[in-house]
C-alpha cells in the first residue's frame, strides 16, 4: 500500500451494521509511502492506522 499526505483512506465495513469510515491522511510515517498513516476521520478522530485488507487509499483530487 502506498499513500501521500492528502490522500483519503477508506475503511470498508467488515460486518453488517458497521459504518464505513473515510479519513484524510495527515502523515505518512513509513518509508516511501508505506504505512503507518496518521489519519483524521470525518468524525474528527485522529489515529495512527496500519491499514488492513479492508482499506483502500484514494488519491487526493484537485491539485
Automatic annotation (TrEMBL):
Gene3D superfamilies: Domain of unknown function DUF1918 (2.30.30.440). SUPFAM superfamilies: Cell growth inhibitor/plasmid maintenance toxic component. Residues 1-57 form the DUF1918 domain. InterPro entries: DUF1918. It comes from the Bacteria. This is DUF1918 domain-containing protein. It comes from Saccharothrix tamanrassetensis.
Amino acid at each position: 500500500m502506498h499513500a501521500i499526505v492528502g490522500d483519503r483512506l477508506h475503511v470498508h465495513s467488515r460486518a453488517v451494521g458497521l459504518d464505513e469510515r473515510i479519513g484524510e491522511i495527515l502523515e505518512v510515517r513509513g518509508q516511501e509511502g508505506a504505512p503507518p498513516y496518521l489519519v483524521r476521520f470525518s468524525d474528527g478522530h485522529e489515529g495512527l492506522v496500519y491499514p488492513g485488507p479492508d482499506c483502500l487509499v484514494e488519491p487526493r483530487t484537485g491539485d
